[in-house]
Amino acid sequence: MNAKHILVLYAHPAPHRSPVNRRLADAARATPGVVVQDLYDTYPDFDIDAENERALVRDASLLVFLHPIRWYGMPSLMKEWMDVVMVPGWAYGTPDSVLRGKGYWLVATTGSGAEAYQPGGLHGRPFADFLAPFEQTAALCGMDWIAPLTMHGAAAAGEAAVDAHIAEFRRRLLAYTEAAHGE
Fold first, then answer.
1. What average pLDDT does the chain have?
2. Domains of the chain and CATH, by start
3. Which residues of 5-23 are buried (b: 16+ CB within 10 A; e: fewer)?
4. First-to-final CA distance of the chain
5. pLDDT band for position 164 (50/70/90)?
6. In the chain, what are the helix, strand and coil shares in percent, each to the nearest 5?
7. Which of 40, 46, 42, 39 lies closest to 8 in space, CA to CA?
8. How confident is the model at residue 183 (pLDDT cuts 50, 70, 90)?
9. Average pLDDT over residues 132-150
10. SS in 3 state form for 8-57?
11. Are 71 and 123 within 8 A, CB to CB?
């Protein structure tokens, strides 16, 4: 496996109901130098092969966490993956931890529109306030935090908005792939 691949960790518990996340995963699969690990497809029983996952992570320059935001966090299998794979001494806690210097890019969708993420809105605070656990995970592991790519109101988004979002994801993914290969 190429030591500079990009690893997309895709977690959606109901991909058949999420055309945006499915299309994002498909765009990643179609990008050279990108490995997509579909966690719900690979581990429907939640029995994660930590050593296999660590091998995928070890050989990646960038980890893309692709999932919907559900109840202000990640889907349960993504959280289980982090609990099982990202252990102390390997993922963080030592100067030579495996994740140190790798990129952390959150690519997420929300059910609510952007207007819901403001004072007085449904969620009562800016969306950035809900990113603290993700940012802190990157910081603890010595990873480079990359500004998230988020599509708010994904379920109600029109085709043109979805197409534009997928195109931006693909553009950025290609740029990161080229950077990882020194092009």
1. 94
2. 5-180 (3.40.50.360)
3. bbbbbbbbbeeeebebbeb
4. 19
5. very high
6. 45, 20, 35
7. 39
8. low
9. 97
10. EEECCCCHHHCHHHHHHHHHHHCCCCEEEEEHHHHCCCCCCCHHHHHHHH
11. no
Residues in the chain: 183
Q: Give 2's pLDDT tier (boundaries 50, 70, 90).
A: very low
pTM: 0.94
* Continuous segment of H or E residues that includes residue 166: helix 159-180
Q: Tell me, rounded to whole angstroms, the distance of Cα 145 from its chain centroid.
A: 12
Rg (CA), the chain: 16
Pairing mode of beta strands 5-10, 60-68: parallel
* Per-residue confidence (pLDDT) for residue 168, from 0 to 100: 97
- Give the span between the Cα atoms of 88 and 85, in whole angstroms: 10
Determine which helix (DSSP H) or strand (DSSP E) holds 170, and give its type and residue range. Answer: helix 159-180
Q: Is the dihedral of CA 67, 70, 74, 76 positive or negative?
A: negative
Q: Which residue has the tokens 């207007």?
A: 115
Residues 13, 75: Cα–Cα separation, whole Å = 7
Sign of CA dihedral 105, 110, 113, 115: negative
Contact 151, 110 (CB under 8 A): yes
